[in-house]
Design brief:
Blueprint: E1 5-12, E2 15-26, E3 29-33, E4 43-48, H1 52-55, E5 73-88, E6 98-113, E7 117-125, E8 129-133, E9 138-144, E10 148-156, H2 160-164
Amino acid sequence: MERNRHPGTFEINGAAESQSVWACVIGDTIRISNCARSGADRKELVLTCFGARSLTFACPLPRTGQMVYPEPANEWHIAGTCVGEISWGPRGHPADGEFEVRPIKAYRASAQASPQSLVLEFTGRTEGGMALCHFANSVEQIGLAPWDFRIRFVVERERLAEFLDAAPGS
């Protein structure tokens, strides 16, 4: 399996977008996409306030490789002015910089650890969104309907270090 791709589901409004996800942790942010074949179908969830330090309870410690499992499961409720977003696109043909963006003010994250894997789940509801065109530097439409999201995926034990060390500073 390619780097940062994991078995799981990416659901928007109850409909499964894919059966695997691309996910990586960069600093205190997690990025998850639906592994779409084309940009027009690509949806990406970006959540702040959730990084490798949130998960060290269930992961090999970076320097020593020791496994730490003090609790089998944890849950977080994160809220703020803007703690993430879901983007969809580029949607034009050819990819001309058209995106839909829906901000997130709150989400729930859960993690279940075992000696074999780490199961992560993120759920929430976006705010109303907008359609943007980067090349025209304009907002094309506002008031797009909010989305409910549920992303659940499994990181196998042998891939935990890779998942948590996706970029320097993670």
